[in-house]
Amino acid sequence: MTDTIAPSPPALKRPSTKRRAGDTAFLGLSTASAVSILVILAGVAIFLIIQGWPAITANWATNPSLSVIQNPAQVPWGSFWEYVGPLLWGSIWSAFIAMLLGAPVAIGIALFISHYAPRRIAGALGYVVDLLAAVPSIVFGLWGIMVIRPLLLPLSHFLNEYFGWLPFFEGPVSSTGSTILAGGVVLAVMILPIVTSITREIFLQTPRLHEEAALALGATRWEMIRLSVLPYARSGMVSATLLGLGRALGETMAIALIISPSLIYSVKVLTDGYNSQTIAANIALNFPISDEMQRSALIGTGLMLFVVSFGVNILARSLVSASGPKKEKRRSKGKSA
User: Where is each ABC transmembrane type-1 domain found (predicted)?
Assistant: First the structure.
C-alpha cells in the first residue's frame, strides 16, 4: 500500500499594491481640504496682523484720529492697549454671563434627551434644539429687544432691591432694559445648540454596561447618571462649554442691538450706562464711519479677539484629547486583568 502525498495548497497571492484612480483622487481631495483649512487660518491671521499693526504700534497720544475714537469722555487714549482693554473685558464678561446662564440649561436638556425623554420626544426635541443654530443673530437681537428686555425689568428691580449690596447688582436700574444681563441671556440661548448637541452625544457614548450595573445594584436613575454618566462625560462637558464660550465671544449683532455700550471696566449687570462694549459689536458699529487709521485700530482689536477665541478652542480640543489616553489605559488594564 503506497502512501499518497496531499498536494500542497496554492501559494497565496499578495494583494496588489496598485492604488485605484478613485482612491488617489479621494486622497488628494482630502489632503487639499485639510491643508486649505490651515492656509485660510494663516491667511486670516496674517491679514489681521498686517492691517492692525499700524494702529497697534502708533502713538495714540499724538494722533488725533486715534485719541478720540469711541471715547465719550474725550480723554485721549495713551496706547492701543488702553483702548482694547475695556473691549476685551466686555467680550469676556458678556460671554461668561452667557456661559453661567446657558451651560447648565444646555447640559440639563442634553440629559433629558439622552436619558429621560421617550424616543419620539427625544428625537423631536433634539431636532428643535439643533434648529436654533440656524436662526440668524439679527433675529435673536430683535427678540432680545422686544421680549427679553421688558421681561427682565421686574427681575432687575428685585435683584437690585434685595442684592444691591453686591457690586454686580448695584443701581441705578435701567428703565429700558438695555443691560449686559439682557445681552447675556440672549447669548445663553444662542449657545444652547452647540453645547447641547456635543454633551448629548457624549452622554449617549457612556458604556451601557456601566449604566446597567449601577441600576442592577439598586441605584435610582439620577444616582446612575451621577455615578456613571457624569464622571464619564466630565471632560466632554468642559470642552463643550468652552466651545460655546468661543461662540459667545464672537457674537456681534445681538449684543450691538441690545446693550447701551461704554468703553469701561464694569461688572454691573443692571444699569444701562455701565455696560462694557464687546470687540465684535464695536467693530460692527464703528467700521463704516471710521477713517483709515481708525479702521486699523478696529482690525487690531479683531486680532485680539481672534487670539482669544483661538486659545479657547485650543483649550477645548486639548481637554478632549487628554481624556482619550486615559480611557485607552483603562481598557488595556481591564483586558490584561
Answer: 88-316
Structural domain for 164, as ranges: 44-336
As a three-state string, the secondary structure of 75-122 is CCCCCHHHHHHHHHHHHHHHHHHHHHHHHHHHHHHHHHHHHHCCHHHH
Q: Say if 63 falls within a structural domain.
A: yes
Q: For residue 235, give the CATH number of its domain.
A: 1.10.3720.10
Specify the pTM. 0.81
Nearest to 140 by CA among 254, 252, 249: 254
Can you say whether the dihedral through the CA atoms of 186, 189, 193, 198 is positive or negative? positive
Question: Total structural domains in the chain?
Answer: 1
Determine the Cα–Cα distance for residues 270 and 175; give it in Å rounded to an integer: 10
Helix axes 80-111, 292-336, angle to 10 degrees: 40
Q: What is the pLDDT of residues 141-178, one digit of tens each?
A: 899 889 998 899 999 899 988 888 888 888 788 888 88
